[in-house]
Specification:
CATH class of the largest domain in chain A: Alpha Beta
Order of helices and strands of chain B: HHHHHHHHEEHHHHHHHHHHHHHHHHH
Number of strands of chain A: 10
Number of domains of chain A: 2
Number of helices of chain A: 11
Strand content of chain B: under 5%
Shape of chain A: elongated
Oligomer: heterodimer
Strand content of chain A: 15-25%
Structural class of chain A: alpha/beta
CATH architecture of the largest domain in chain A: 3-Layer(aba) Sandwich
Amino acid sequence: MNSRFLTILSLFLATALLLAAGPARAAYPEKPVTMIIAFTAGGSSDVQARIMEKYWNKYVPQQKWVFVYKPGAGGAIGFGEIAMSKKDGYTIGGINVPHLPIQAATQKAQFTVDSFDYICQVVNDPQCVVVRKDSKIKSAKELFDYAKANPGKLKVGLVGPNSGHHLMYLDIKKKLGFPVTEIFYKGAADQNAALLGGEIDAMLGNLNDVMRSLEEMRVLSIAAEKRNDFLPDVPTLKEQGFNILSDIRRAFVAPKGIPTADLSFLRETFKKICLDPDYLSDMKKAGQPAEYLDGAALYKYMQSLSATIKEAFAKK
Amino acid sequence: MNEFIFSALANLCDPLNILLMLGGLAGGIIIGALPGLTATMGVALMVPVTFAMDATSGLVMLGAIYVGAIYGGANSACLICTPGTPSSVATTFDGYPMCQAGKADQALITSLLSSSFGGIVGTVFLLFLAAPLARFALKFGGPENFWLCLFGLSSIAVMSSGNMIKGLVSGGVGMLVATVGLDPHSATPRFTFDYYPLIQGVEVIPAMIGLFSISQVLYLIGSYKPFIAEYNPTPGVFGLVARELLGKCKTILLRSSFIGTWVGMLPGAGGEIASIIAYNESKRWDKHPERYGTGIIEGVASSESANNAVIGGALIPMLTLGIPGSAVAAVILGALLAKGIQPGFKVFTVTGDLAYTFIFSQFVVNLLMIPVGLLLIRLLVRLLRVRLTFVAIGIVLLSVIGSYAIRNSMLDVWIALLFGILGYFCNRVKLDTGAMALGIILGPMIEENFGKCVSLSKAPGSSIIQVFLDSPIAVILILLTALSLCTPFLMQWRRQRAAAEAALPADPVLKAKTDWLKDILSGAFVLAIAAVFFTQIHELEDVGRKYALLLLAFIGLMGLYLCFQGFRLRRLQTAGKAPEEEPVAMRRVAIIVGASAAYAAFIPILGFYPASAFFLCLSAIVLNDTTTSPYLAAALLTLVMCLAVWLVFSMLLGVPTPEGLLF
């Protein structure tokens, strides 16, 4: 009798203990996580996120990602969707920089850089200065000199307006003086075609996009801190004495105000993924220039970039 | 090339690849046939699947889906006058009249064989002439593309001959509607009417779903017909159609396929333009152009061979230069890059095994499509045996999920419904929805390329005229556009001469009693649209403002003219032998409009499947037009449709359906 009572009591206590510890122990994530992609399925952002997913499943095998595509208005629709989603840690999404801060600054967007909790940066795709393979211009310096000697004569293609390319162009103009005729294209494909077809003489383009038509192009210089593994022979603008840095970055964020524990779990897991050598080799194969930056540092970068953008586009 | 032929053929004999081709084709045809699911989406949805395959198999499968989907669009175009993909708009012009004349099987088999023919021609170009053609495609810059789009737009004049003013103003309204969203020159929102989500603009596909599918639903529901069309299977139809195509349609097939390949090569322009240009060229060079639109196989053959030839064309710059020639090619390029394959002329040497396997697979796929297509056609014509009311209700369901799935946005569902009502109204007052769709497709491209030309003209020593006229290609396109604009007058002149020779009185114009009212209504309608947009014009600046003002002025003038013409007709009108109007059950039309709107409104609350079940069941009961009890049929329709949609969309394709608060 006594022993039976004890057994029941201990069972009861154990259950109570389990129940009490339950919420703490059955830790996040206990259901699938929604991943919002602000561009179309099969696009560059999607491809990158799918690679991330492969390694998320390796480190967090119990819960999957559910992909939701919310394309439109250059990402602004999807970014807004992330910012306004439930702050329970079960909706995260991919963002592109500087698209997001530019939209926040120049459109009546539904978000600012402060609408998000930053998980981490995964890609840094530097901008390149590119001409056609048969061009007489052989270096960035020659390009800038030629532009100054023949104002307006050089036709330069940009994707935009109000894009990362546009921002870099305004930066070059401010620092070096760059009197050229600017032509805006809807996307990298149109821009590449225009350069190859001779409609423009030079263009500013992302490494990832330039790589597609590398056979026909000469990459003069790259606007990064250091040379890139994909194009080790291409010098940086800094090396040649031009203080121009410009890139397109991809990062993952959650809506601002998710539980702190969930955010640190996400940050730790994403860090593990980003340092995984298999992940890095997959990224390289897909032509995605990987660069990890932790959430806090990314937030700091976003704030300073936001200030730069407001200044650059206000003056325009 | 020779060293790769055998390995490529060996790759294709791999049972896995054959299975992927068959599966891709069948899946593609179904995706294409469903209104709302486009080729782009079908291919994009399957990209993640290819990550688990080797590059060759993945590419072969995506190529098969592409071919199947572009062909598949013809089936719904012929059977229910709803282009399954934007590429098959022109197929409805003759395909649907054929179906109504009881020749559905002939229309479907014509589409199938022409698609296969066009696909093979496009692939031949891809195989033998990829390098020079890619170089040629690069010559199309801003000015050339601008003139190409205007040439496409000028086809409105041919399309709606006899009713040119209404055709032109419809095109203008389409172009105006397409300006909603982000201004391409300043990247600021315009015509959003202070409703932020409109910043994403009016996407082509939901607008087309509305203009074609939903307006067709309203028409069908309002007609007093029990079935969409009579269907009398023709014995030996396959041989009959094949003989006709090889006989009198040789030139048409070849010309349309060339046009398709050429338009496909150009970045930006795809099947939706190629098929319309090809259709109009066939009409223009025909001895009896007035037959077009009445249901002749030449019309179906031109459109369908052109849109499948686009595939080979679009792959040329994608493989050789890394520049996709169509939206689908862009998705396939993404899949290639994800596999670490570099496009470029070297693709035929360094990765020749892959490139040639892919190209040869396109030949095989286009041939395999004939048996696979024939099998599916047998199933699809059964649709004509289903009562019209049920078909119409089913199309609403597919239109809703299709327009939602494009961007996972309920706004697009509302856009589709709105355009459905607009399209129905336009059809009633004889405004041209085809021209409107063309305006929505071409408007943004015209504006974008116009902006490029303005920028180019800012270079020193350059002027806007010089930019527009500098290249020989531009001059040729201008001449073609001028010729195209003259065509309706030429056709009229020819008709009058023929009438004079036959000593008949020149064209007795029979005007229906209500024609004057239609003119006034359409005039008032376009004036109202222009007025609504005009309230927002103060927000615009620069090129965007000029472009919008130009469109508004054009629409305003045409609207006034239509009103004026209406009043004049009213005075001239004589009582007498006016042709009778088709009777319309307005009450039923109102019910289906109300039910569809309630359906869309309840989706965010109830969730997609419960809302759909309610909608299907209730509308089937209320709209029942037989004497028997509707309950069993309604339950059956609900069950079958929900199950089919769940299987195809949720299980097979993984298309997300809208979530509700409750489910």
